Amino acid sequence: MKAIVDQEACTGCGLCEQTCPEVFEMDGDKAKVMVEFVPDGSRDCAVQAADECPASAISIEE
Ligand code: SF4
């Protein structure tokens, strides 16, 4: 599984970092994905972060 943050859409709210800090990290006023592949133990929170992103900026690829 891969997670991708659309840098254009991200508003920098920080919610994804709070929800899934193993995968998402704030980099200035945008979120970035820290891992090339989402570890198995972080899949649920990565999906949750994508679902809850207020800007719908996170996409998940299997
Ligand atoms: S939850 Fe969405 S809008 Fe907020 S920082 Fe993360 S990617 Fe950006």
From TrEMBL:
4Fe-4S ferredoxin-type domain residues are 1-29
Q: InterPro entries annotated for this entry?
A: 3Fe4S_ferredoxin, 4Fe4S_Fe-S-bd, 4Fe4S_Fe_S_CS, Fe-S_cluster_ET
Q: Which domain of life is it from?
A: Bacteria
> A Pfam family for this UniProt protein?
Fer4_13
Which Gene3D superfamilies does the entry mention? 3.30.70.20
Indicate yes or no for the key word 4Fe-4S.
no
Keywords for this entry?
Electron transport, Iron, Iron-sulfur, Metal-binding, Transport
The Gene Ontology terms for molecular function here are: electron transfer activity; iron ion binding; iron-sulfur cluster binding
The cross-references to PANTHER family, in alphabetical order and at most eight, read:
FERREDOXIN
Chain's role: Ferredoxins are iron-sulfur proteins that transfer electrons in a wide variety of metabolic reactions.
* Designated name of the protein: Ferredoxin
Q: What is the lineage of its organism?
A: Bacteria, Pseudomonadati, Candidatus Omnitrophota, Candidatus Ghiorseimicrobium
